[in-house]
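Exam revision sheet. Question 4 asks you to relate a sequence to its structure. Input first:
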Amino acid sequence: MEENRVSGPPAENIGKQPSPFVLALPKAELHLHLEGAIEPETVVELARNHGQELDSVDVRKLYEYTDFTGFLMCFRGITEHLQTPDDYELITYRLMERLRRENVLHAEVFVAVGTCLYWGRRWDEIFEGLERGRIRGERDFGVSVLWIADAVRHFGPEAAQSVVDCSAKFMDRNLVGFGIGGDERRAAPELFREVYASAANYGMRLTCHAGESMGPQSVWGALKALRSERIGHGLTSHQDRELISHLRDTQVPVEVNITSNVRTGCCDGYGAHPVREFFDEKLLMTLNTDDPAMFGTSLTQEYQIAQDLFGFTDEELKQLAMNSFRASFLPEDKKREFLRTFEKVPVGHGD
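Answer key, structure tokens:
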């Protein structure tokens, strides 16, 4: 619907040149999939490490899709190349290096434990690789990372419970939460009521992909049946005024992913995205990349898109960045420590 699209720079330039203010802004990212951050060049390297020569052109085709189903198949194809703990150490370290360049000080990273189990990988050993990469990355780049165990909802509740059970043992080692992703159209939140109750009993923090490819009822299900503490995407929430009021009144954080929603076809173009409405309605929302390598974006680009296309001022971007720490699963003292860094952040242009 062309009449709803916002004006701005040509599509090929959207968010590509973040302002000095956006680059310097301290940021956290709360909706970020480790496997979706793997660059094509790293896939070639992973394959070579396992005795397989892949043409870089062919690898880039893995990243091509036309709809949400195609995106899920691409994600699956990329994870197939993750076989050993060393692979996970490598992609974790590369991700943290990239986060540092974006001035992302903290990230809560989804790991596709459900997919790992599907491929028959030894999760205990894989986690050791993740932690080696995280420790090296924190030492070299000063980036804080917490892990969120991600189950594939269309694999069903039993598989999701396996993710909870095998992940909970690592909660004393930076694994902090549980969530479900995958095809929302094939598995409603209510199917996972007992799984989420189990995760909560372990002390896991709860998030849930909802309202991405399905309507507001999916968000309601995540809130009421699963007692999710954060909502991943929440794209269709604007279709239900009662839901918007509820999200505003309860301040349940909404993890917004602009480019992701456009690239998967869940949102009909940038101009149809409700990010501005969410902010103006005073929802506790954050900006995120979701799967940055697969969507050709970065967190600074997402902030710049918010400014270029949706008119966010520097002061409003600063508020979004502060939201990203407030909505995190960090302990309160760590949140306060990160929020103090904003005392020295000047507000530049865009007001």
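Marking note for examiners. The radius of gyration is 19 Å.
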